[in-house]
Design goal:
Number of strands: 14
Distance between the termini: 37 Å
Radius of gyration: 21 Å
Largest sheet: 8 strands, parallel, barrel
Structural class: alpha/beta
Helix content: 25-40%
Order of helices and strands: EHEEHEEEEHEHEEHEHEHEHHEH
Number of helices: 10
Strand order of the largest sheet: 7-8-9-10-11-12-13-14
Oligomer: single chain
């Protein structure tokens, strides 16, 4: 339920309203815009008398939200959410470029790539320490050692880091990781999502291989309902009948999510296409479609990569792509101001 307050609402009356609603075991989320203040009610609002609310002097309007996701709903929070990671911001016109290898393989590898992508304009360093692989015989990551190597690369370059968690037991290792990634396979690991809701740290939530946009938003709701509102949604392609690419990149998800939710949305063209030469055009297409950021796999020797080398671009290719992204963003900004 949404309660729209009148401008310059009496503070004492507002506090009385909050106390009344809290006594009904309802959570309250305040969203203050330039001209409108919205009070979002979380919980079982069936006990709330709408007519009684409407009769209050400070209330302009009351609306019920029909969608099952409340915290992630744009109706609940009209302004775009902006998430800060160090000096980097994402959302509401702030573009974030994440780059790095699929998996951390060695100190030399991750530090070299980190320095390279930083020089090319990346804001965040990605790297997998725990790798969910289809085959139990495939490289599973360096685990705790991989996190330590990521932190070394962070120390050397100053780049914040993002890495994927797979299990609740691994969370203590992620205390110094700047953004915790939830992979496609764990999008509906609700026990993990609830735990992440109690962590005050940005969560990069990837869409599942065969999940709808509403299911993605409901997974975000699990995190946000626990108190952590710093969720970044990620479109990484969905499984279809098409076999020419690893997955099918759903670029329409970008405007759809932005209409439904206030959360930032980024695109992973590497996992979506699974083929390095397609990463470049799909990255530019995602920027044109309005994404708030990209997450791109970069490896200094893709043919020798221990994981997903076929979809990893070289540092040289990433540098070229980064420059074109900058140019495209400038053109879009110029077009929007005309």
């Amino acid at each position: 339920m949404i309660v729209v307050l009148k401008q310059n609402a009496n503070k004492d009356q507002l506090e009385n309203l909050k106390s009344w609603l809290t006594n009904m075991n309802l959570g309250i989320h305040m969203s203050e815009g330039t001209n409108t203040t919205i009070m979002g009610l979380i919980g079982d609002t069936s006990c709330v008398d709408i007519d009684l609310l409407m009769a209050l002097e400070i209330v302009a309007d009351v609306k019920r939200i029909q969608e099952p996701y409340k915290c992630a709903n744009r109706k609940f929070h009209p302004k775009n959410t902006v998430i800060s990671v160090g000096e980097t911001k994402i959302g509401d016109g702030n573009f974030m470029l994440i780059a790095g290898p699929c998996s951390v393989e060695s100190r030399e590898q991750i530090c070299s790539i980190a320095e390279s992508v930083k020089q090319s304009g990346a804001n965040i360093l990605r790297g997998g320490a725990f790798k969910p692989r289809t085959s139990p015989y495939a490289f599973q990551g360096l685990k705790g050692e991989g996190i330590e190597l990521l932190l070394e690369a962070k120390k050397e370059t100053g780049l914040p880091i993002v890495s994927e968690v797979m299990d609740l037991s691994q969370l203590p290792l992620f205390e110094e990781v700047d953004i915790i990634q939830v992979g496609a396979r764990n999008m509906q690991n609700f026990a993990l999502l609830k735990e992440l809701g109690m962590i005050k740290k940005p969560i990069l939530l990837k869409r599942g291989l065969a999940n709808t946009i509403q299911e993605l938003l409901m997974s975000a709701e699990y995190i946000m309902s626990g108190g952590n509102e710093e969720v970044i949604l990620c479109e990484r392609g969905v499984r279809t009948f098409e076999t020419s690419t690893r997955n099918t990149l759903d670029l329409s998800a970008i405007p759809v999510i932005k209409e439904l939710s206030h959360l930032p949305v980024v695109v992973d063209p590497s996992h979506a296409t699974g083929i390095a030469r397609f990463v470049h055009p799909m990255s530019l297409a995602a920027v044109a479609a309005g994404t708030d950021g990209l997450i791109i796999e970069v490896h200094n020797h893709p043919s020798a990569a221990l994981c997903d080398g076929q979809q990893s671009v070289t540092p040289e290719a990433f540098d070229k792509l980064s420059r074109e992204i900058t140019q495209l963003l400038a053109l879009i900004k110029e077009f929007d101001t005309q």
